[in-house]
Specification:
The protein is of the alpha/beta class. The protein has two domains: 176 residues, Rossmann fold, CATH 3.40.50; 146 residues, Dihydrodipicolinate Reductase, domain 2. 41% of the residues lie in helices and 21% in strands. The chain has a six-stranded mixed beta sheet, sandwiched between helices. Strand 11 and strand 12 form a beta hairpin. The longest helix has 21 residues. It starts with a strand and ends with a helix. Bound molecules: NADP nicotinamide-adenine-dinucleotide phosphate. The site of NADP nicotinamide-adenine-dinucleotide phosphate has 25 residues, from helix 1. NADP nicotinamide-adenine-dinucleotide phosphate binds next to helix 1.
C-alpha cells in the first residue's frame, strides 16, 4: 500500500513513527508493509518518490527544518504539489493530516475529492472535510468503490468512530454523550482542585494542551465539530456546525465548581448527539455517572443503546501517537479489504 501524506506535522510524524517502529510486528501480524511515496506540507517543502521514501530520513528532515533536508536520491521529486501527486497515480491512499478549517474545509476538501476521483482511498485526522461535507464525500467514495475513513478525527485513536459505524451496528443507539475536548476537561479538573479559570487556562497552555488562541476549545467549537462528525457516523445525519447550540465553559468559575461539589456533582463539558441533532454545553453530572470520573485531558463517550444499555469508552483524545493510531487502524481496515479483494 502506497501512502501520500498531506501534512507532516505532529500527527503525520506520529503515524510515521508508528509505521517505522512497528514495521516488523505490522508485517508479521498483518502482512502490512506500507510505503510513503509522497509528502506535502504547507511551507516546509514536498517530496515524492514512486519507489517510496525512507521513513527515518523523512522524520530527520522534518526535525532538521523541512523536506529540503531529505538526502539526495535518484528519481526524487521535490516540487510536486498534492494535486499533481494524486493525478500522477503516485499512491493508493491519501492520509489527510493538514490543519482543520471548519469554515469551508479548504484546501483539504478539494484535495480529498481529487484523491477519491482518482480512485484513492481517503483516511483523515483533519476534521474539516468530514465536518463540512460528509455526505458528498461518502457518496463519491461509494461511487468509486473506495473507503472514506476518519477514526482519528474524534478522540484520536480511541475507537469511537469504528464503534459507532460498525461494532455497535444494530444495537439501537439512541444517544451519545461525550467529553470530546481534553483542554476543557483538564481545566475543569484543575478548577475542582482549587485553581481559578485563568490559572487553569494558563496551565493548559503551558503544557501544550490548549492553543495560544484557546477559543475553539473553551467556547465549545472543537467539541461541536466532533459532535457533527459523530452525528454522521451514528445516524447518517449531515448537520451544519452553525445550526448547533454551542455553549463553552467560559462562564464557569470556581464558585460554580464548588457549588456543584457541595451537591455531590461535577461540571463537565458535554457534547450530546441524538436523532434530533447535536449540542454542546457544560452540565452538572452526579459523581456516579460514568463521565463524571473522567479527569484531566482524557476524553470519553457514552452510547445509550437498546440492546446493551449504556456503553462507555475512555481514552486519549489527542497526541502524535494516539492520533497516529487512529489513522493506522483505518489503514489496516483498508489493507484487510485490499487483501480479500484487491
Ligand atoms: N495534534 C493532535 O493531537 C490531533 C488530534 C486529532 C486530530 N488532529 C487533526 O490532525 C490534523 C493535523 O494536526 P497536527 O497536530 O499534525 O497539525 P500540525 O502539527 O500543525 O501540522 C500540520 C501540517 O500540515 C501542513 N500544511 C499546512 N497547510 C497545508 C497545505 N495547504 N497543504 C499541505 N499541507 C499543509 C503543515 O505544513 P507547514 O508546517 O509547512 O505549514 C504541517 O506539516 C489537524 O487537522 C488536526 O485538527 C490533531
Amino acid at each position: 500500500m502506497r501512502l501520500l501524506f498531506v501534512g507532516f506535522g505532529v500527527v503525520g510524524q506520529g503515524l510515521t513513527r508508528l509505521l517505522q517502529q512497528g514495521a516488523q510486528s505490522l508485517r508479521d501480524s498483518f502482512g502490512f508493509e506500507p510505503t510513503i511515496t509522497g509528502v506535502a506540507t504547507g511551507s516546509h517543502g514536498t517530496l515524492a518518490h514512486p519507489a517510496g521514501l525512507d521513513k527515518n530520513a523523512l522524520l530527520q528532515a522534518a526535525a532538521a527544518g523541512g523536506m529540503a533536508h531529505y538526502p539526495r536520491q535518484d528519481g526524487l521529486l521535490r516540487n510536486e504539489g498534492p494535486l499533481a501527486m494524486i493525478e500522477a497515480g503516485l499512491a493508493d491512499v491519501l492520509v489527510e493530516v493538514s490543519p482543520t478549517n471548519l469554515v469551508d474545509a479548504q484546501p483539504a476538501l478539494n484535495i480529498c475529492r481529487a484523491a477519491l476521483d482518482q480512485g484513492m482511498h481517503l483516511v483523515l485526522a483533519n476534521k474539516g472535510p468530514v465536518c463540512i461535507g460528509p455526505a458528498a464525500l461518502e457518496s463519491l467514495a461509494r461511487q468509486r468503490g473506495r473507503q472514506l475513513r476518519y477514526e482519528a478525527t474524534v478522540m484520536a485513536g480511541t475507537p469511537v468512530i469504528s464503534l459507532s459505524r460498525e461494532t455497535l451496528g444494530g444495537s439501537g443507539v439512541r444517544e451519545a454523550r461525550g467529553i470530546l475536548n481534553g483542554t476543557c476537561n483538564y481545566m475543569l479538573t484543575q478548577m475542582e482542585a482549587g485553581m481559578s479559570y485563568a490559572d487553569a487556562l494558563a496551565q493548559a497552555q503551558a503544557l501544550g494542551y490548549a492553543e495560544t488562541d484557546p477559543r475553539a476549545d473553551v467556547e465549545g467549537h472543537d467539541a461541536a465539530s466532533k459532535a457533527v462528525i459523530l452525528a454522521w457516523a451514528l445516524f447518517g445525519r449531515s448537520l451544519r456546525l452553525e445550526d448547533l447550540d454551542i455553549k463553552g465553559i467560559t462562564d464557569l468559575d470556581r464558585a460554580d465548581v464548588d457549588e456543584a461539589r457541595a451537591a455531590g456533582e461535577r461540571w463537565k463539558s458535554i457534547a450530546t448527539i441524538d436523532q434530533a441533532g447535536a449540542r454542546v454545553a457544560p452540565q452538572r453530572l452526579p459523581l456516579d455517572h460514568p463521565l463524571a470520573s473522567v479527569g484531566g485531558v482524557n476524553n470519553a463517550l457514552t452510547w445509550t443503546t437498546e440492546n446493551l444499555q449504556d456503553v462507555t469508552i475512555v481514552g486519549p483524545g489527542a497526541g502524535p501517537e494516539a492520533t497516529g493510531q487512529g489513522l493506522l487502524a483505518d489503514l489496516l481496515v483498508i489493507h484487510r479489504q485490499y487483501q480479500a479483494s484487491p
